[in-house]
Design goal:
The chain is an alpha/beta fold. The chain is about 55% helix and about 10% strand. It is globular and about 85 Å long.
């Protein structure tokens, strides 16, 4: 077990957009200094000078408690090598009630900073410091999360466009939306809908015009001429129509949505390329992508959430609990229930579900999943158990700098082999 260094001084920072309140307390809980700094370089240097006057050194840095894990101030403090504790605001509120011991509900920024410092003094062991991730993995985290957010934004734009087209342009949905279709976000759909944003425009498209639009995108599997005829039949089929002026107005609105969808699709592509480049440059990329079901992008999402600080998790059980892969037991009296975790890293849990689902196509993970299903587990529970298994193997491989070995990861139990 790691023995944390003892500090005679603890620092609490009440963060705000324009300024930050600083409080320093000693081991007895006595406030020895307070300061309000600006949210700029001058304010940061003032904080460093204050800490230095109270014994802060490179060998024994003063730990800091703050209510946010993000921002320039936090990044600058992390660069100094000190431990930063991001205290959940709800937890800090509970400490505030205990600290003041009254019903007045009084609140001030300076008092909140002192409370944060006292949290470290009394309950430092109960809070986890921000991981000491490398600069490379922090960059991967920024890009991987931005790429995931961009995908979610793109899906929202697709849903908005689909809902809008249903109001006046059902032929577009028949042509591009649904099983076996290219999708409204495909380049072909966006190009054709931009050229024909209304049913009237689509019905007037000639074969040569459709052929030219299709050639601007990837060649369809069925062939260009076959796709041209398919679209002409759909666009010229009899359907319900809005009044002409209303249809034209809806077409203008569709053009605006298509432009927004274009921007969302371009963002996804650009962020995907940047994420892949940053991830492949990280030394853990080869180990992570050696696992079944993990591509470059999904591997980047996993690395972004678990980081490369080897001391962040005490053991494999800790990372499994962090991801929500491990169940939680609730026992009280005669009641004993094992349920799935709800408090978890949602991004890692989402990536893990897709990871386990993709791994079902490979030889070793599939029998493990089938055994869980045969034992009575539902699909989601069996998939979560597979993710739990794979994540434990990944933790072991990263700790030992070893690649995935299916024979060791999914060794057949002795009673089954007999």
């Amino acid at each position: 077990m790691e023995v944390q260094e003892l500090s005679a001084i603890y620092c609490g920072i009440d963060w705000a957009e324009g300024h930050h309140d600083i409080a320093l307390v000693d081991q007895d809980g006595t406030q020895v200094a307070k300061l309000r700094i600006s949210d700029d370089s001058a304010g940061f240097h003032a904080l460093m000078e204050l800490l230095a006057r109270h014994g802060d050194t490179a060998e024994t840095p003063i730990p800091v408690a703050i209510e946010t894990p993000r921002g320039l101030l936090v990044a600058s403090l992390r660069a100094t090598g000190r431990k930063i504790y991001a205290i959940n605001p709800l937890a800090a509120a509970r400490y505030r009630d205990r600290d003041r011991g009254s019903v007045s509900r009084a609140k001030s920024d300076a008092a909140d900073a002192r409370i944060l410092a006292n949290i470290l003094r009394t309950d430092r062991h109960a809070h986890r410091p921000l991981p000491a991730d490398s600069e490379a993995v922090q960059a991967v985290a920024v890009l991987a999360r931005a790429h995931q957010d961009a995908i979610w934004d793109r899906q929202q734009m697709i849903n908005r466009l689909r809902s809008h087209l249903r109001e006046y342009y059902p032929a577009a949905l028949v042509a591009f939306h649904g099983p076996g279709k290219t999708g409204l976000d495909s380049p072909r759909a966006r190009v054709i809908l931009a050229a024909a944003p209304t049913p009237a425009d689509a019905a007037n498209l000639t074969r040569s015009q459709l052929r030219a639009l299709i050639k601007r995108t990837a060649r369809p599997r069925c062939g260009i001429d076959t796709e041209v005829e398919r679209l002409r039949n759909i666009f010229r089929a009899d359907s319900l129509r809005q009044l002409p002026q209303v249809e034209l107005a809806l077409g203008h609105q569709a053009m605006a949505l298509i432009q927004q969808l274009d921007a969302a699709c371009n963002s996804v592509a650009q962020l995907a390329a940047a994420t892949e480049e940053a991830f492949l440059a990280h030394p853990d990329a080869g180990i992570i992508t050696s696992f079944p079901g993990l591509s470059v992008l999904s591997g980047a999402r996993v690395l972004a959430e678990i980081g490369d600080d080897r001391e962040r998790f005490a053991d494999a059980r800790a990372v499994k609990a962090y991801s929500g892969a491990a169940p939680v037991t609730r026992a009280s009296g005669r009641s004993h229930v094992v349920v799935a975790r709800t408090v978890k890293n949602q991004r890692l849990a989402a990536a893990g579900y897709m990871w386990a689902f993709a791994a079902l196509r490979t030889e070793a993970p599939r029998p493990h999943y089938d055994r869980r299903r045969a034992g009575g587990e539902r699909h989601t529970a069996a998939l979560r158990n597979l993710f739990n298994k794979l994540l434990g193997c990944l933790y072991h491989c990263l700790q030992n700098r070893a690649h995935y070995d299916p024979d060791r990861a999914f060794a057949v139990p002795l009673d089954l082999a007999a």
